[in-house]
Specification:
Blueprint lengths: L12 H8 L1 H42 L8 E5 L5 E5 L6 E9 L3 E5 L17 H4 L8 E8 L2 E8 L4 H10 L2 E6 L4 E9 L5 E5 L2 H9 L5 H10 L1 H5 L1 E2 L4 E2 L4 H18 L2 H28 L1 H6 L4 H32 L9 H28 L9 H11 L7 H4 L5 H63 L1 H5 L6 H17 L5 H20 L17 H10 L11 H21 L1 H4 L6 E3 L4 E5 L2 E5 L3 E4 L2 E5 L5 E4 L5 E3 L2 E7 L1 H26 L12 H5 L3 H13 L6 H14 L3 E3 L2 E3 L6 E3 L1 H4 L8 E3 L14 H8 L1 H22 L14 H57 L1
Antiparallel strand pairs: 1-19, 2-16, 3-13, 3-19, 4-8, 4-12, 5-6, 5-9, 7-8, 10-11, 13-14, 15-16, 17-18, 20-21, 22-23
Helix pairs in contact: 2-22, 2-28, 2-29, 8-15, 8-20, 9-15, 11-15, 12-13, 15-18, 17-18, 22-25, 22-27, 25-28, 27-28
């Protein structure tokens, strides 16, 4: 407000009023300084409280438990061979250790690569470019076995090195191509023999590809040459087919495939799948189908899409949030509109109303800035300040609250409308939630039924393939058994077994027939869609086990022309294997080159601890409280009578960690001393009562250094004589000086050579500080006998009992002191709530004084204005009279 005063009187009205309100301003200034002092006191307590809590929750908490004193240390006589870490439960003593092997990961360093025209390769180089015997359209196949799982990798001659690397990594090994060194590197994912890997060609082109990729090792090729000579002899290179020597290999492979298929085409698996479908369908019919049908209208409205439903649910949540804001805003507007003269909203309500109006103003500002930016012409832009403000406002969420502003006169009707809308939205949200659940339930039901149906169909298909194989492989035997179906033949064999057993005849051949026929009868039951229980389809046509059985019967479940039966698959596989074996056996020079891969086999670590053998897939062993890490194999010093190596033993010694326990106690004393010294300093500081926080005018008259020293003087004395601090101080000192009964004997810190230096032997703020006799870091007591360390070494149980009880008692006292009260928040060691209330109270008093000062100023300015007005009239009259008198002369 701009005031023009003293025009007629010539008085310094502002100065006079300032003097008239000086006393009131002084009172306000005193309150501001008191509030500032209170703010600084809160900050001082927060800082100190954090330190007290840190001591309480970490150092002190750890000391409470006797287990913390069970420290062990172990030394190794040769840390180059093995390192050892002792756990709390390690046994004291000396043990012998030998490291026979360290663990290794399987590793293959590929041979150096080059293209057939002797050029460098890159990740885009193809297999046909690496080996002249591979054409672009050739089928290339090899397998990777890692962690007991075999993965076939099927490629073509046009596949790139990058494709190979990708497939190897998917197969469970770690592979990479180093273009700088022109090599492929392959390693197992972890060390140990169980994690090792192998790479084997599935056909000749696979062998050529591995050779071109530099992934063949001479050891594997030599092994294949020696072990596969007979298999190679089963291959006729002229016809490209197996000769008669291959029959046994094919039969063995076929039997292996049949055994695998028989497991998958297991009648119990089909039984379980039927039971699962039955259970699923019954659950659907009885528990979930009605919910799905009831939600159909909502489901159809949102195209059976949970994502669309979720989108609508989010929109409802947003609208309900807006309704809440509209209701709150309208309520505040209504309260404001009915205030009587002199009344005002509560401080909380006034602040909330201000926030709403600020939000509305910011929304308008955002809209204006957005419109301005959209309307800019070419080459025009917002100012830097406008762009920053637009960015700031764009990050906020605003609701359109304009509807609430006109609600005050019609508040009840307005709120009633919002309440009704909210109820409708809540009801709709419940319907949407039910619809989402129904959709998800139905999809889960369908998926699980489909999965179980797939098991049945796959089993039926496998059963067809199996019975075709069994019928073909055992046609002579089956033809000699009477009966049309496998079940009839089985019954005939069982009758024969009964008769022969009664006559004491050999039934071995019959029992073999019986086992085969039982398999085939079970397979036939699967093929024919065995009728499980009497579970029927209901009138709605709901999916049920009977439906699945009918569906399987209606399908063509025989393998199609593109599929191979067991014998055909076995023949194809063995032919490829024999062809590869033939190539290796007859063209070894083609594959055995100086550029073969170098292989390191995965290996377990093995140690002998006190003569007992232990193995690990990595180099770490956890044995009876010791953690042993093998670093290298022990040196071999000779061999025994059997020729076995004799290893150099190393010793590992375990004992109580006296230094570790000492350091823990010393750290506890150190942390306590640091805390009690600070508390004593703050408690005994000069209260600096003659110093008050500075006003702006006072600061203007001082240098920055003077201001800092002035304020620091006040801050240093804020907790002087503080009652809360005195309570903490007394509690700490009392708990630390107590005597504790240990095995019938009263003991205190002094029993362990830990004492304060007394009133006259310590500096003023160090009278509560404890010193440890024999502590080499303490000049005062370092030369004294080290009583604490001696007792830890000779009687560790007494040490652990005393200090754990001492820490436990102090911990309990601090926990009680930090409990929540009407004046104190939980976890604090001072009455933070009271300080906060006092700070708030000062704020209210300051506001009250400011209001009174404003009222006084308004009163005085009005009075001076009236005086100025009166003087203006007097001056006007005086001038008039003067003019009149002058005119008469």
């Amino acid at each position: 407000m701009i005031r023009i005063t003293g025009m007629n009187s010539g008085l310094d009205t502002d100065g006079i009023i300032k003097e008239l309100t000086a006393a009131r301003n002084k009172k306000k200034e005193k309150l501001v300084k008191s509030q500032t002092r209170m703010e600084w006191k809160q900050d001082s307590w927060k800082t100190l409280n954090s330190k007290i809590k840190s001591f309480y929750s970490s150092t002190l908490s750890n000391m409470r438990f006797q287990s913390s004193f069970k420290k062990k240390k172990t030394t190794s006589s040769n840390t180059n061979v093995a390192t050892v870490v002792a756990g709390d439960n390690a046994v004291n003593g000396t043990q012998s250790l030998i490291v026979k092997n360290t663990a290794k990961a399987g590793y293959l360093t590929g041979g150096k690569l080059e293209t057939t025209d002797k050029k460098r390769v890159n990740s885009a180089t193809t297999l046909s470019q690496l080996n002249k015997d591979i054409a672009e359209g050739d089928s290339v196949s090899f397998s990777v076995t890692a962690k007991g799982k075999t993965t076939n990798i099927d490629l073509t001659g046009s596949s790139k090195i990058s494709d190979v690397i990708s497939q190897l990594n998917k197969a469970g090994v770690t592979a990479s191509f180093d273009e700088t060194n022109q090599r492929i590197f392959v390693s197992s994912s972890a060390s140990g023999s169980a994690n090792d890997f192998s790479i084997t060609a599935n056909n000749v082109k696979g062998l050529d590809a591995l050779s071109g990729l530099g992934l063949l090792t001479s050891e594997e090729l030599s092994k294949n040459t020696e072990g596969n000579a007979a298999l190679a002899a089963a291959y006729d290179s002229a016809t490209g087919k197996l000769n008669s020597n291959g029959d046994s290999y094919v039969n063995a492979k076929a039997q292996s495939y049949a055994a695998s298929l028989q497991t998958m085409a297991n009648l119990s698996n089909v039984d379980a799948a039927y039971d699962k479908i039955k259970s699923l369908t019954e659950d659907w019919e009885n528990n979930k189908k009605t919910d799905y049908e009831n939600a159909q209208a909502t489901i159809a409205l949102y195209d059976n899409d949970p994502a669309k439903i979720a989108e609508r649910q989010n929109a409802i949540d947003e609208r309900m949030n807006q309704i809440a804001e509209l209701s709150n805003y309208a309520s505040l507007l209504q309260k404001e509109s009915v205030l009587a003269e002199g009344e005002s909203l509560s401080e909380t309500d006034a602040k909330r109303l201000e926030n709403y109006r600020t939000s509305i103003a910011e929304k308008s500002e955002l809209d204006a800035l957005t419109a301005k930016k959209e309307g800019l012409g070419e080459g025009e832009s917002l100012t830097e300040e406008e762009e920053a403000r637009l960015t700031e406002l764009s990050s906020k969420k605003f609701y359109d609250l304009s509807g609430a502003e006109a609600a005050a006169p019609d508040y009840d009707d307005y709120i009633s409308g919002l309440t009704a809308e909210k109820a409708d939205l809540e009801s709709e949200k419940e319907e949407l939630s039910a619809a989402t659940t129904a959709i998800n339930d139905y999809k889960a039901y369908q998926a699980e039924v489909e999965a179980q149906s797939g098991i049945i169909k796959a089993a039926a298909k496998n059963a067809v393939i199996l019975n075709d194989y069994y019928a073909d492989a055992n046609s002579d035997m089956l033809a000699g058994i009477s009966g049309t179906t496998y079940a009839e033949k089985l019954a005939a064999v069982q009758t024969s077994i009964t008769e022969k057993t009664a006559n004491g005849e050999d039934t071995t051949e019959l029992e073999s027939q019986q086992a085969l026929l039982q398999k085939m009868a079970d397979n036939e039951a699967i093929i024919n869609g065995k009728d499980f229980d009497t579970y029927e389809v209901d009138s709605t046509g709901a999916l049920s086990p009977k439906n699945v059985a009918n569906a399987i019967e209606a399908e063509d479940i025989t393998y199609d022309a593109a599929s191979q039966g067991i014998k055909e698959r076995a023949t194809t596989t063995v032919t490829n294997e024999a062809m590869a074996a033939y190539e290796v056996a007859n063209n070894s020079s083609k594959y055995l080159t100086a550029n073969n891969a170098v292989r390191v086999l995965g290996q377990d670590a093995e140690i002998l601890l006190n003569g007992a053998s232990f193995t690990s897939s990595n180099n770490t062993f956890s044995i009876n409280g010791l953690t042993i890490t093998a670093k290298s194999a022990s040196a071999v010093t000779g061999s025994d009578k059997e020729g076995n190596p004799i290893y150099e033993e190393l010793s590992i010694s375990t004992e109580d960690d006296v230094d570790g326990i000492y350091d823990m106690v010393k750290n506890f004393i150190k942390e306590y001393n640091k805390l009690i010294k600070e508390i004593d300093t703050l408690y005994g500081a000069d209260a600096a009562k003659k110093y008050d926080p500075l006003t702006s005018e006072e600061k203007d008259a001082m240098t920055d250094d003077e201001i800092e020293k002035w304020e620091q003087k006040i801050k240093d004395g804020l907790l002087s004589g503080d009652s809360d601090l005195g309570t903490v101080r007394n509690m700490l000192k009392s708990a630390m000086s107590q005597s504790i009964m240990i095995d019938g004997k009263n003991m205190s810190l002094s029993s362990f050579g830990i004492e304060t230096m007394g009133y006259f032997g310590s500096a003023e703020n160090e009278r509560g500080v404890y010193r440890i006799d024999g502590d080499k870091e303490d000049e005062t007591t370092g030369a004294f006998p080290d009583k604490l360390k001696k007792m830890i070494a000779s009687d560790p149980d007494t040490v652990s009992s005393f200090f754990s009880k001492l820490a436990g008692g102090l911990y309990s006292s601090m926990m009680k002191l930090s409990r929540s009260t009407t004046n104190r928040s939980y976890g604090n060691f001072y009455d933070d709530k009271s300080l906060k209330d006092q700070y708030t109270s000062y704020g209210k008093k300051i506001k009250s004084e400011e209001d009174k000062i404003a009222d006084m100023e308004d009163k005085y300015y009005k009075q001076f204005a009236q005086m100025e007005s009166a003087m203006a009239k007097i001056n006007s009259t005086s001038n008039y009279i003067g003019n009149m008198m002058g005119g008469g002369m």
